[in-house]
């Protein structure tokens, strides 16, 4: 039984009928959608046969009967196709083509729809599955991004003092342990606000909170980029200076901190005056020291600064470093 041309258009919408000279005499509707005006053109002028190799004329094509053909358009877009050839018994042939793995790109490039495939072709179902999979993957990615943002926010909150926005004691412990493990020069300042309790008791906790927030802002402005400032108590702060043990430079920073904090802070037009006492401990490079030892040394220096009249800084007695 001979397959009639109208039947081919329905059953094989990607077919090409070739005459004995290798010219295209008919193209299926979907193939015509990919390239117009195919009739009358040499099949091998339209398509680049990649496998089997060395197919250069109609006789070569006929010898490839029943073999899987790998081809692509010679002009852009150079869509890759697969095909199989069947002789028509009169020197010509019918080649049925399909997209293979280039299906997704072809649907995008040529705006193909369900009507462009034969009714039994599973390509449409595969496209639906791919779209569903892509949608599921994108939804999963969006969920993962939201979870990651939420996790980062939770971690930041866990390591942040909610009133001042500085690092809290938990964050300080991590930073200090990491800095000490690094083995380099390190300085730690323990800073306590002078006269803060009088302001807090006299004007109320709201004023005290405002003082702490402004003090935190001023401290950040008085240290180097990358230095750590943490609130570890009501009006107590610890500052870490990685890579620094110079008494002269640390003294300049401590003096700057005290001067910045002594500038009056307004609370509803009422100037509030505070200051700071600072104890400084050093860990020179190569010296083994535990976090609690360094903090204890800074505490002792802080008490010495307070005993000497407050609004000043002192170095720990055990500290040693370049002047």
TrEMBL record:
Enzyme Commission number(s) of this protein: 2.7.7.65
Gene3D superfamilies membership: 3.30.70.270, Haem NO binding associated domain
GO molecular function, one term: diguanylate cyclase activity
Enzyme class of the recorded protein, top EC level: transferase
Alphabetical keyword list: Nucleotidyltransferase, Transferase
Keyword Oxidoreductase carried by entry: no
Name of the protein in question: Diguanylate cyclase
């Amino acid at each position: 039984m001979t397959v009639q041309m109208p039947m081919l258009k329905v059953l094989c919408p990607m077919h090409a009928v070739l005459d004995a000279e290798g010219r295209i005499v008919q193209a299926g509707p979907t193939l015509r959608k990919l390239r117009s005006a195919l009739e009358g053109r040499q099949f091998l002028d339209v398509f680049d046969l990649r496998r089997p190799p060395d197919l250069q004329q109609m006789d070569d094509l006929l010898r490839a009967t029943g073999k899987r053909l790998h081809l692509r358009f010679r002009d852009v877009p150079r869509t890759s196709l697969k095909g199989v050839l069947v002789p028509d018994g009169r020197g010509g042939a019918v080649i049925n083509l399909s997209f293979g793995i280039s299906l997704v790109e072809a649907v995008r490039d040529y705006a193909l729809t369900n009507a462009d495939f034969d009714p039994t072709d599973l390509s449409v179902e595969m496209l639906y599955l791919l779209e569903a999979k892509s949608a599921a993957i994108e939804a999963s990615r969006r969920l993962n991004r939201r979870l990651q943002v939420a996790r980062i926010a939770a971690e930041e909150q866990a390591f942040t003092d909610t009133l001042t926005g500085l690092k809290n004691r938990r964050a300080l412990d991590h930073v200090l342990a990491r800095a000490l493990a690094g083995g380099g020069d390190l300085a730690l300042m323990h800073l306590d606000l002078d006269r803060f309790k009088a302001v807090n008791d006299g004007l109320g906790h709201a004023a005290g909170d405002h003082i702490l927030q402004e003090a935190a802002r001023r401290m950040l402005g008085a240290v180097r980029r990358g230095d750590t400032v943490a609130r570890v108590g009501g009006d107590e702060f610890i500052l870490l200076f990685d890579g620094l043990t110079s008494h002269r430079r640390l003294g300049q920073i401590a003096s700057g901190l005290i001067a910045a904090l002594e500038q009056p802070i307004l609370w509803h037009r009422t100037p509030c005056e505070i200051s700071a006492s600072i104890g400084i401990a050093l860990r020179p490079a190569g010296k083994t020291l535990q976090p609690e030892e360094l903090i204890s040394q800074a505490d002792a220096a802080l008490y010495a600064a307070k005993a000497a009249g407050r609004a000043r800084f002192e170095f720990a007695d055990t500290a040693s470093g370049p002047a």
